[in-house]
Design brief:
43% strand, 0% helix, mainly beta, 84 residues, 4-stranded antiparallel sheet
């Protein structure tokens, strides 16, 4: 008989996407994180967590200062700087 170990993990689903411009994209997840990507890289350059484990419903960039990001889940709307 052989012993086998079954590893199980799940990745969060994408719940919303918003392009900032041609190279930068914000991805909201089903587990409440926002990942900021430069599309030339496969790794996010910034991750923000809402800390409620609820799906992100919407992401927007401020119209006058696109360093500020608005992210919304079922419980809260956060406004944050995408660099800090």
């Amino acid at each position: 008989s052989s012993n086998s170990i079954i590893l199980s993990f799940s990745l969060p689903a994408v719940s919303c996407i918003k392009f900032k411009d041609a190279l930068n994209i914000a991805v909201g997840t089903s587990t409440g994180q926002i990942l900021m990507f430069d599309i030339r890289s496969n790794k996010p350059y910034f991750i923000k967590d809402h800390n409620y484990n609820l799906p992100i419903k919407r992401i927007d960039f401020h119209t006058l200062n696109d360093d500020y990001v608005l992210s919304i889940d079922k419980k809260i709307c956060k406004i944050w700087n995408r660099h800090t």
